[in-house]
Amino acid sequence: MEKITAWWKENQRSITLVKALLLAALPIVCCLVYCGSQGFALSQVYLPASEWNDELFYFKQVEGIIKYGYPQGYFGFNESHALKLSFAAWSPVLVFPWILWGLLFGWNLMSPIYCNLFLMVLCCFLFVWLVRPSWKQMGVLTLLFSLYTPFVRYMLSVMPEVICFSMLITFYSLAINYLRRENTYKLVLLFLLAAVMTLMRPYLVLFLLLPVCFWVRRSRWKGLIGSFVVLGLVVGLYACIKHYLGAEYFAPLFFTDWVSAFLEQGLVGGIRFTLGKLYYMGRDFLGHMRQGFSTGLPSGAFFAGYLVCMMVLAVQSLRDWRALKRLDRQRKEAEGADKSGRRKKIVQQLYIEVHLVFCFVAMLFALLLMYKLTEGSKHLLTFMAAAVFVTAWMETAFYKKAVVLGVTFAYFFFYMGLDPYDYQVPFVQEERQAALEDWEDTLAGRLVLREENVPNYENVVIWVFGDTVDGDSVNTQWQLLYALPEGFGISCCMQNYVLEHFEDLQSKYLCVVPGGPVEDSCIRAGYEKIAEAENAVLYRRY
Description:
Order of helices and strands: HHHEHHHHHHHHHHHHHHHHEEEEHEHEE
Number of helices: 21
Largest sheet: 6 strands, mixed
Shape: globular
């Protein structure tokens, strides 16, 4: 008992616990304040009112996994499907916290939101417990967290960004704690966290390099060889997941033309092609930023915020490096002066700051060379979320860099962040709710899941993304597909694909825009109408 009491008193753990509980409440308070400011309660967040169609795929896949182990119908695009099982283009590892939550507490429209909240609460608690920030640092973090509105927006969604946010913040919290006391189990946990993040999204392999650095510093050649083995296993496992469990997307998810240029045009030609692509993509990048400043374009706002975060981290890294050099000179000039504690803190900061700057720079080049700018912009949010916590933790005199970051967030996410598509949380809409409930009642009796030889196309609904009605482009009201029975798969298909392959379609059901060419084809083919709404009609083919 005395040992437990002594451990508790060491480093004022009771105060640390109070701080941890206070910061853990911050995500909940931010969400409640946001919902209240919009005139709603947290329980009135309503995912089928969202315009983010990726959410439908994530929600229904998790639902099928929880119920059956994997969806009984294929998830894909233009009727593509994975070589094994029935997942969409993204790694199923990405949603594992939702799966665990659903298995423990059940799965409904509020489940991913409560899980997201829990993850952010947990990571905030762990940050304080592992990092031991001062009250001043707690205040800075509270301000930056509140101003960085993607925290709230993604917590109240079915997008996996919060899963990435919370894991990366926990990763850096543990890294800081490891630098204070280098225990082997912490290094193992760092490798495990980074490996899981890599299996979720491949560019997060950048964070595996930090525990690699720790291991090499600690064990030299043994650490180097072991790190190569770990990296090889993780990258190989991701390649297998992508190859066997990933469905083909409409277009390549990563562009590798700059790599092909080296193989086809040689070293000089490859360098010329890569520099040219960086120039043109960089010009577009700056164009998005200009629009972000002037019109609030979300991708431009993300790019600008990303560069400011990178600048803040780089400047502080340089200042800490200079402080370290100055401290070392002072130690040489005045032998015996006890500066080891101060030096250790600076070294700890440098490890975290330099590594995060490296990751920012590497991801920027990856974005310019391998991603579409608009689609790739949301991937930068995870790096910025980590920068919020690292910036608050940095020991500086006046926190000028935190002020710069706060002003940037306030301008882009509060003053200019008015686009409802990217910033507005979906709340309950009576008409949408009534239509969804009507479809749930109808489909429950009309759609029967075939459980033999699964996954199969008899359990798949083609969601025709949009169609042309009287010369106007109209999107299908895909939100009604939340009403599909558990286990059904969804194949998102373009109009031209469906019309071109109409006689050869494999999926049993089609959800189409009423009055468009695709529905005309369904009527001529004598397909059975199952359910109908303003901008969505569901047909059974056979």
